[in-house]
Design a protein that fits this description.
Beta-lactamase; Methane Monooxygenase Hydroxylase, Chain G, domain 1; 2 domains; eight-stranded antiparallel β-sheet; two-stranded antiparallel sheet
Length: 415
Amino acid sequence: MKTNIRALPFLLILLFFFQSISSQGLPTARPEEVGLSAARLERIKPFMQSYVDQGKLAGLITMIARRGRVVHFEKYGVMDSGRPMQLDAIFRIASMTKPITSTAIMMLYEEGKFQLNDPVSKFIPGFKDVKVFSGTDENGIKLEEAKNPMTIRDLLTHTSGLTYGDFGDTPVDMMYREADLQGGTLKEMVDKLTKLPLLYQPGTKWNYSVSTDVLGYIVEVISGKSLDEFFQQRIFRPLRMNDTGFYVPKEKINRFTALYELAKDGKIFVGETPQASRFAKPPKYLGGGGRLVSTAADYMRFAQMLLNKGELEGVRLLGRKTVEFMTRNHLSNEFFPLDWQGYGFGLGFIVTVNSAQSKIIGSEGEFGWQGIYNTYFVVDPTEELVIILMTQISSSIYFHIEAEFEVLTYQAIVD
């Protein structure tokens, strides 16, 4: 077939256009151009497809970028029983909201609005007199005075003494459940929290909690904006994260994935349809700890900004030193009592401190987090690498797909 030479510039423009569409606006590269093996990356697709073929997952998306360029962006399975998965599918990212809220509060930190050791009561006076759970006796629970004030740093590192209520069985967790903390507005949740005891003395123990939701409220107090307004004006719009927010607008609901659950027999079923989801309408509760929806490409833009030390495409959200400070380990082993050997915790991120002890191929200094519906991201400054996985199943404890995806990514590095 003969090619019209005059048409070549137009064809090149068209090719660039389709490449941009395929990566949702992010630059692309052939794997070998950025030190990856295309043949080795091909191992990812059949492995991930096997989760769909075996009925373990309905559908998912995997995405990899190195040195700022996307080299892998694949979709598998379905968004629900009638719709094939699309690259621009919208997912409930749950606790992957936390790094965004942590970024928001640190943007205000850079503006001199607070210091990390400032007591939380400076912005939420109700926390000034909060008591701490110290045990039980025949008269009920015992409380003691807080030995140190809860600080903003404690919120960022989950050493605040707060808890979640959903996962534990302590008397404090039960009090959280009875209080229906997320049944109203963010302010109403914080008001309820100040009337409940802390589970631990502030600054003494790592405990996954509503700390980041409290940070979201502090963002509102300091900025004078609602959390969704702050996110939209200061983070999402500048980074062109056009499909990220606290709900899915009506015109995008056809791109929203169903949420699946795992039955006792090991089969999955639709637990929440897009149309019936709480995310199908503007929410009352703007939770900084786990209420955003997003796409793989949108979150890649956020993660790439972090890899670039606070900047993306000429837009700077954070300074280099701030990102470096946020993404180093801030806790010693006695503060971080999980069974995750080799890991620490920064200001909003889990951080690998010893890759050998982590038992997963990777790099010291990589950081990231995951959501309870099996969304997951890793940023590796050493390898200039970002990996993103998106799927929707109501528990992340049954599979090890995140670790498997990480291994499949790192084994493809050949430079």
